[in-house]
Design brief:
7 helices; alpha+beta; globular
């Protein structure tokens, strides 16, 4: 019984859910994600023959750095949809995300989260992207590396991170960098 009491008194040191205010310390098997906004973007690269550029589609992702458990997000969405004036999934999420536009949850691996649970959430992330933003190049590594490159270019050129979302600046978006890998 003492172990449970001491675990309950441990303070969260990492990301915390904006709904339940707990993270991987207190809920080590609950998947945490970060609200993100993604849009399609052309990926241009040198063709394999070296004769010019080819282009495919990828994503550009920005964030306001708000974490939420996937379970808490689903529960909040259910509650939003039962309101007198129901909200769609991402309408309610925008409110929880400091009124910053979002259209997906980027999952983070931490705590005692099993690898297969995390892999399922990555699959879900790309499924939601395809549904809300549209299909892109099927090479996930290439897409993520390009997304990362665009994020760093925005930082280097001091470009707006919030042009499309109306929130989230450089410091918020840099929280995403370690998790993209």
């Amino acid at each position: 019984m003492k172990q449970l009491d001491s675990a309950a008194n441990v303070e969260e040191t990492g990301p915390k859910c904006i709904v339940c205010h707990e993270g991987y310390t207190k809920k080590p098997t609950e998947v945490l994600g970060m609200y993100v906004f993604s849009k399609k973007l052309k990926i241009s690269e040198v063709s394999s023959s070296g004769s010019g550029f080819t282009s495919t589609l990828g994503y550009q992702t920005v964030t306001h750095s708000n974490f939420i458990h996937f379970v808490c997000h689903q529960n909040a969405y259910r509650a939003d949809s039962q309101m007198k004036q129901p909200k769609k999934e991402w309408e309610g999420a925008v409110i929880r995300n400091d009124h910053t536009k979002c259209n997906n949850l980027f999952p983070f691996r931490g705590g005692n989260l099993p690898v297969d649970s995390y892999a399922q959430m990555i699959d879900r992330y790309f499924q939601v992207l395809a549904k809300s933003v549209g299909q892109c190049d099927p090479d996930r590594v290439k897409v993520m590396l390009h997304d990362f490159k665009v994020l760093l270019k925005k930082l280097a050129y001091e470009d707006s991170f919030s042009r499309d979302t109306h929130g989230g600046g450089p410091e918020h978006n840099m929280h995403l960098v370690p998790f993209m890998f």
